[in-house]
Structures are given as C-alpha cells and as structure tokens.
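Technical note accompanying the year-one report. For the benefit of new consortium partners, we illustrate the data format agreed upon in the data management plan: each record pairs a sequence with a structure-token string. No post-processing was applied to the example shown here.
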Amino acid sequence: MGQPTDEVDRIVSAWERERPDLPTVALSVFSRITRLARYLDRARRAAFAQHGLEVWEFDVLTALRRAGSPYELTPGTLMTETMVSSGTMTNRIDRLVAHGLVRRAADSRDRRVVRVRLTEEGLRTVDAAMTDLLRVEAEVLQTLPHGEQEHLAGLLRHLLVQFEVPGP
C-alpha cells in the first residue's frame, strides 16, 4: 500500500510535468507548511473564540502568563514578545483593560514605569484557552507517533533558527 497523497502532491506533479528542469523538493515542503499553517490558524481562532478571544489577545495574555507570578510585564517587553509597535500595544492593552483581562499598575520601585498584569479573569481565560489550544494541536498531530512528532519539531526548529534572533 502506497503513501497517501495530498493536494501538494498534485501541484508538485503538475510542475514536474510542466517544468522537469526545476527542483521541487522545497515546493513540496513549504507548500505543506503553508497549508498546515492555514488549517492551524483556523483551528486556533476557533479555540480562542470559545473563550471570547482574538489571536492578538491570546498572544498578549500568554506572554503575561509565561512571565510567572505575578503575571506582569512592561508594555515594552510585551511589544518585544508579540512583535508589535508601541501604538499597537497601547491600543491592545487598552482593549484588554476594557475587557477586564489585564490592569495597569505603577511599578513599586519606580512610579514612572507602568506594568501590565493579568487579572484573575485574565488568568482563568488564558489558562482555559491554552488548554483548548493544546488539545486541538494534539489532535492535529495524533496521526504521527510521539517519536515522529519530536523528530518533526526538531527538523522545523533547525529551519526556523536561521530566521530568529537567539534568546537570552
């Protein structure tokens, strides 16, 4: 029994027929990554919507959650973690404050510094959304044995590090 085929196989086959002079391995890899990213984006949006969240809200809330107790960061750190501009972050924080998911507080050591902190509601919301997201993502990977999942993660890491700045 042969390997299952997908839409990318059809596309690559057509290019190999039309342009046999072109190498198509990269096309077969990156077309699959792109298509998977689209499916995952839809699944993520659906998981977040169950908790009344947009993707950008989830990104900010998870950055705060990962910071550990007391779940707070400066707006500058949030900008770096979510890769958005100052104006965009200010707008996002304002909207999250309005929804009761975060609050602003002056730094205890320097009143000029503002910190953004998860509220209890924000903590409950982000934890529930993260649980649902990981469930959805595990379902996507369930067709691969655990060892292959780890191998795939390693291969993708190897490709990704060339684009990312090393962390601390």
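Partners are asked to follow this layout when depositing records. Helices lie at 7-18, 25-49, 55-66, 75-82, 86-98, 120-141, 146-160.
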